[in-house]
Amino acid sequence: MQLLGVATLALTLVALARQPRALEAYTADPTFAEHVAPILYRNCTSCHHTGGLGPFSLVEYDSAKANLKDIREMVSTNQMPPWHAEGAHDVFRNDRRLSDKDKATILQWIDAGAPQGDLKKLPARPEYTTGWEIGTPDAIVSMPQDFVVPATGTIEYQYFSVPSGLSEDKWVTSIEILPGAREVVHHVLVYANVPPDPAIDPAVATAARRAAAARQPLVPNRANGLPDDTPRQDARNRPPRNMGTLIGTTAPGTNVLVFPAGTALRLRAGTILTFQMHYTAHGHETHDRTKVGFKFATDMPDQEIFAAAFVNGMFKIPAGAKEYAVPSDVGVNQPVQVWALFPHTHVRGVKWQYKLEKPDGSSQVILDVPHYDFNWQTYYMYVKPLDLPAGSKITAMAWYDNSASNKSNPDATKDVTWGDQTWEEMQYTGMLYTIPARRLRPAPLEKNE
């Protein structure tokens, strides 16, 4: 957690001292037990617990009081909890932002000397394990063997294909990826593919694949694809020819994926899972064996949810460019409901904006991320899905800072193109969607029907 400079911190304290009393949440001083702990437990402790991603625990009073300076800085500057989209609070179901009242309560508690209060009034203490956040998975699939991460050097992406072991189709309600050595795992992508049945005539299988592609509702802009000369892994580490569909991701700031109520992802019998592993050396040799865990629905869901992505790999960001825009888009040829968007660039990415453009010519911003942070990536999950009529499209614009003023820039003297490694760049959007015309159960009737 970074600290403000002395001068900046002093100005912040003065500004806070001058805030009107109307911002304060209580006329009496709030206490940890009765007023602050409920806020922390609801918004902060999923990371800030012993063994969590946060640098200190906020579950216990003593630990919270020992870190008041950091808490004040992060809360007053809106750096924590990490959330980088702008807009109303009721749009995304995973919105981590504190309300104005919650922020005022925490700051007023700090100003009052951080009183403990009556510990009998503490809310139920959140319990966190060092294992699975989704609880014990119904199925776990692991990399087949440990991968040895060297102490130094650049590590090409690694690919491990593993049978899922499923003898029948399953409906997945949540997915979690559990790295074996989290400190060296930058990100993991898990793909699912059903290999062809050898008993089926290849010509029949090809015709079936073409028919399925024709039913695909998403229409990416082909000009935004990957260039033919995109660097590939060497022959020893080439990805499988058909990895299938991306179904799970873990990256800085995001991991557990819980699908909206009434939806589930179909994991078919005989599925082969492929782990794409991005490792970073940390100064000492490390062994990793990453796993993916699944929770299954007990009944067929109302709707099948699909995972997809659209990209623009045909860009070159000039050396020294301060604010370079790269567009991409995806259209639909039938009505679709979009449940989530996942913007992804590397360290030169600074902001994103998405718009929904409908056939009638209307347009609206559906996701605005003015302060994209590579270290806190987010799958933005909508409370209500976005309705995309046939003929509409989602346009995405990502902006990059390839100048020397970007402190995260590995080298401002070089042009940057698409590439796997962090010092290269991507313009990638993941998405989750359902197709209303393919409901598995009839839609419920309106109350007035």
Descriptors for this entry?
449 residues; alpha+beta; 23 strands; disordered N terminus; Jelly Rolls; 5-stranded antiparallel β-sheet
What features would you describe in this structure?
The chain is α+β, with helices and mostly antiparallel strands and 449 residues long. Helices cover 14% and strands 30% of the residues. The protein has helices at 6-17, 32-43, 61-65, 68-76, 100-111, 202-214, and strands spanning 139-142, 147-149, 158-163, 170-178, 185-193, 218-220, 245-250, 257-258, 263-267, 272-279, 286-288, 291-296, 303-304, 306-311, 316-317, 324-332, 336-344, 349-357, 363-369, 380-388, 393-400, 416-417, 428-434. Residues 1-24 and 230-236 have low confidence and may be disordered.
In brief:
The chain has helices at residues 6-17, 32-43, 61-65, 68-76, 100-111, 202-214, and strands spanning 139-142, 147-149, 158-163, 170-178, 185-193, 218-220, 245-250, 257-258, 263-267, 272-279, 286-288, 291-296, 303-304, 306-311, 316-317, 324-332, 336-344, 349-357, 363-369, 380-388, 393-400, 416-417, 428-434. It is α+β, with helices and mostly antiparallel strands and 449 residues long. The strands form six sheets. Strands 1, 4, 8, 9, 12 and 13 form a six-stranded mixed beta sheet that branches.
